[in-house]
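ligand=nicotinamide-adenine-dinucleotide
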Amino acid sequence: MRLVLTTGEPAGVGPELAVAAARWFADWRAGRVAAPDGMRVPAGTDLRLSLIGDAELLRSRGGEFAGLAGVDVEPVSLRMPAPAGQLVLANSDYVIETLDRAIALVDAGAADAIVTAPVHKGIINQAGLSFSGHTEYLQERAGVPRVVMMLVGGGLRVALVTTHLPLRAVPDAITGPLLAEIIHILDADLRKRFGIARPSIAVCGLNPHAGEGGYLGREEIEVIEPALAALRAEGIALHGPFPADTLFVPSIVAPYDAVLAMYHDQGLPVLKHASFGLGVNITLGLPYVRTSVDHGTALDLAGTGRADVGSLLQAISTAVAMVDPSLSSQS
Ligand SMILES: NC(=O)c1ccc[n+]([C@@H]2O[C@H](COP(=O)([O-])OP(=O)(O)OC[C@H]3O[C@@H](n4cnc5c(N)ncnc54)[C@H](O)[C@@H]3O)[C@@H](O)[C@H]2O)c1
Ligand SMILES: N[C@H](C(=O)O)[C@H](O)COP(=O)(O)O
């Protein structure tokens, strides 16, 4: 199995974390260490990790990594020097090229999964390239009509109906057809990638108290409940819509395999509170496995050696388990 790791915004923590992860990876594939969640792979497992990025940048930020067993570099050249913590407009092309290289490798069957280090959405847009996030970019490049962002951590799986959208645009974006597409992907991938025979999914309402019977908003009555009813009739185990504030109470959320939140900042703050630094961002619905870290470029920490590599290690081990579930069951 070969994973490709895009090393992210060159001014951020991605390059140094990628090299730290590569060192851990060499030990992990040799059976010498476990992943943060305890997952081990049997020594001798055929695993390779290719770092996609500028080799000199990686070395200067993370130290030497030549000779690590199972690790290589797919070189992409920086456009301009990249001082730690300082965004350089001209390097946005470099970031996009690392993603395109990863996509080309999975498309050609030369890699099984893409793991991504964080990019800076703002600087890419400032450079004139329209970019909402990896999730949307990978969807577009894969030519699939829809994908689902799901973050996993702290015992929770939280998927989103809408992703990188201004809050003002969210209510209009939530429609019956969108809910059906998202829920079909979520249900199918929980079965296929996570081995859950009949996923039980709790759905958040959009409005406070899930609309309070229509007195605090009507989207639940007019859009969400009818969509869920139709999907239940297909046999999908859907519950809700529930008021989001209490759904995440540990004893209430515990029975469900996943929560479906209506928008980014309804679901992700809960997950990041529960597991920041060890969470994994997964894109469901792509023709290949894609995982990522739960944090951003952390420009304030770049080059200091103080950034935590835990989420990246978890993203790598999760990708391996998703490509070959038999490996996770051996841990
Ligand atoms: N997967 C991704 O590509 C991804 C994910 C989230 C955010 N982003 C992007 O990152 C940029 C910065 O976003 P932000 O400032 O909101 O979030 P951020 O995650 O970069 O930083 C938030 C806080 O967390 C800390 N932090 C982040 N990563 C850490 C780590 N590995 N170890 C220890 N502390 C860490 C930072 O120092 C900061 O205090 C934005 O452009 C955003 O869009 C990218
Ligand atoms: N929504 C993600 C988060 O908050 O962690 C993050 O922005 C990354 O998204 P992409 O994987 O789409 O870049």
